[in-house]
Amino acid sequence: MLSKRAPHLYVAKTVEEAVTALHDYGHDGEPIAGATWIMRAPVRRAPLKKAYVSLAAIGEMNAIDVTEREISIGASVTHQALAAMLGSVPSLKVLTDAAAKSANPAVRGVATIGGNLCSAGFPAADLVPALMSLAAEVELATVNGSSRTSVEAFLQARASLEPGAIVRRISIPRRAHYSAHARLPLRKAGDYPVAIVSAALEVAPDGRVSHATVAVGSVEERSRQWPELENALVGGPLDADRAKLIGAQHLRVFKGRDGVEAPGWYRTQVLPALLHRAVADIQAQLEKQQGR
């Protein structure tokens, strides 16, 4: 039975305060930012925690810092802010498109990048495959200090993190690539995507793909890269039709999850078409830059 007692809310002013409070609460506490996932806990028949630690007042977690080497995004930055503040950075189109197209405007105004990463029971999170395609790293803050890890490693460990661990920021290395995000919702407004393809491709002067990072979301229980496809794309021409054909040849590596919105086989079968859309987007970006 779900508890009807209102949980306690502690508003932290610094990361250190938040970590200490969560460590003290132990498994009875949980961090809260946009709260879009926590507010749906009763729908999922998941019990609320006895205490929540708000991260909303922590300045550094609401900031975005851009340097020549990397872009650092505070974990409490919302989808709406991501799209608005980083929309002028061409290499981050995969992330800003993911942020701008996820859920609906009301949710985008409060849902955070950190929350998207931490929602272990939500395989359809748009920002996760986008961040994976950008080789982003997650910075965790604990009572023992901070450490950085890859998005993939974080996803594997997030369900077993000790109390007191919070996502502090996400760092993205600046690279000379083009990127794109393609998603397939069954309806247009506020629908979770059936499948997601996020791609970041480096293109040599001769038009061939010199490096590829492609991540898939919503198809399985957890987002992951598509290394078989990445390897096959490298060395060939940047061509959406070619990418679609290669994608169709490497579908067996996925085991689609069945859900109320779509069966597993359908999630995998739409991947080549989504890949075609992503690569076609990248082709258009390249042609625009070259003035064609």
Automatic annotation (TrEMBL):
Segments forming domain FAD-binding PCMH-type: 2-177
Keyword ATP-binding: no
Keyword Oxidoreductase part of the UniProt annotation: yes
Record InterPro entries: CO_DH_flav_C, CO_DH_flav_C_dom_sf, Diverse_Substr_Oxidored, FAD-bd_PCMH, FAD-bd_PCMH-like_sf, FAD-bd_PCMH_sub2, Mopterin_DH_FAD-bd
Listed GO MF terms: FAD binding; oxidoreductase activity
Protein name (Swiss-Prot/TrEMBL): Carbon-monoxide dehydrogenase medium subunit
Swiss-Prot/TrEMBL keywords: FAD, Flavoprotein, Oxidoreductase
Superkingdom of origin organism: Bacteria
